[in-house]
Amino acid sequence: MAEKILKKEQKIKRHGFSVIFVHWAVAISTFVLIFSGFGQMPLYKRYMLDQLPGLSWVSDFSVTLSIHYWAAAVLMLAIVYHLVFHGMRRDFDILPRRGDVRESVQIIMAVLGWGKEPANDKYLAEQRLAYAFIGFSLLILVVTGIIKVLENLPQTNFSEGFIFWITQLHNLGTFLVIVGIIAHLAAFIFKENWPLLPGIFTGKINREYARRRHSIWYDRMAEKVHGED
Ligand code: HEM
Ligand code: HEM
Fold first, then answer.
1. Is residue 226 part of a domain?
2. Which among 14, 23, 196 is the best mutation to test ligand 1's pocket, defined by most ligand atoms within 8 Å of the CB?
3. pLDDT score, position 1
């Protein structure tokens, strides 16, 4: 396990390289997919983004399609790696649990100054829900995206109605993932969540914060090292 209490530094090792790699591979490829996906609609020409210096390629369909394919490959590689890595370790900390919706409401109310926050595990209930929501949206995009790639191959020919619905679903997935990312980033407007930020870059977070806010997780780690607290 990557996670442990680092007594000398007063920090907690929260994530290893794999988690940081997957987070940023997914985040960057998703940004590129959104940008290149919108490029396949005539948006950038209409709003003259392609008139800006160095950006004439943004309205070139063959360029944006090729970027979309490369980014899709990176996204799918990261997703497969993520599933195999956590599956093999039987590490399911971030999967939603019963009662997460109620607990998320409690956490959000507490952040806004009403009531007390429940004791949290490694992830807050709202993070587990965010993971499921973003994961579900990406799954829709990958499945429908693969069908759209097949349709683009000369030897495949799906019915027009089928492709119409696949495209609608691909667009729905795009909408959902954008909503998910906005909500994800909005969580960091609140100061309470700032201590998690260094963790997704360096893997380490403040020990006191973990002890106070993620007490279930902290106690489990402390127990493992027998009084190393
Ligand atoms: C500038 C952009 C971003 C920053 C600064 C950022 C930061 C973070 C941080 C600090 C965490 C918490 C990790 C922890 O609990 O230790 C996290 C988790 C996560 N991030 Fe991001 N993220 C960004 C972009 C994205 C994007 C674009 C996606 C999806 C396409 C994404 C998906 C996730 C998911 C699914 C989680 C786990 C659930 C959660 O904690 O909400 N992130 N991110
Ligand atoms: C975050 C993930 C993704 C986003 C936000 C996204 C977004 C978009 C958007 C907005 C379009 C243009 C409208 C449309 O035709 O539906 C599009 C088209 C397309 N996407 Fe994606 N997409 C994503 C992932 C994928 C993946 C994983 C694949 C392939 C495995 C894929 C393959 C395609 C294809 C083949 C097209 C149609 C290109 C054409 O018109 O020939 N997309 N995508």
1. yes
2. 23
3. 54
